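Comment on both lines for my students:
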Amino acid sequence: MNTMTLWHITGWEFAALAFAALLVGFSKTAVSGANTVSLAIFAAVLPARASTGVLLPVLIVGDVLAVVTYRRHAHWPTLWRLFPAVAAGVVVGTLFLMWADDGIVRTSIGAILLLMAGVTVWRRRTAEADEEPDSVSSRAGRAKARSYGVLGGFTTMVANAGGPVMSMYLLSAGFRKLGFLGTSAFFFLIVNVSKVPFSAGLGLIDGRSLLLDAALAVFVVPGALFGKWAVNRINQRLFEQLVIAATIVGGLQLLLR
């Protein structure tokens, strides 16, 4: 029995999942937040809850490729500020998944993403100067890191949708393109790997899902290579606009589905 038969999907549906996996690779090395489109494709082809378990290992493959590509550009003080709050958010997200249905999950996350995009656009229009990454050492920076961290942990646990939330945080903290990509690469590799036991415990990852992941992982690689090529041809302003646009599109997709 092959993977398509096991999941009862057609050739066209597998092609859609393969394209979504390719887009994961591109988002990890170029425009973070673009994989919200992948989230929507996976949820459309597969059962909503099962799709989160299938998508997670695909994301981890993309995270590994992103770390290999941008490992020298990570800002570790920011990461250490975020991790405790993210851990709390993952726990809250796990509890939320135990009782919330798909409609509540989609509406909640979609609203959060649109709110974060709106706040970021407003902050960048009204700020006199961009904050530097080391501003996380201030009291306001620590408070912002905690709030975004909890939201990021929550959204990444319930729907693998933490990318746009953390994108909004890193943009609002004044990260430039390579620092943004390097910091987010390590962040999501660590967070996504830590989510595996929770997802397995909820029955979202099993042998059947891993078999489909093995077939899809190969498509992440060309997407990542294309993203690495494209990011050097995108200026900072366009990069930020694309990240914000991807976040808004992802939020609207979740609200309107």
About this structure: The mean pLDDT is 82. DSSP finds twelve helices and no strands in the chain. Residues 171 and 240 are 7 Å apart (CA to CA). Residues 102-126 form the longest helix (25 residues).
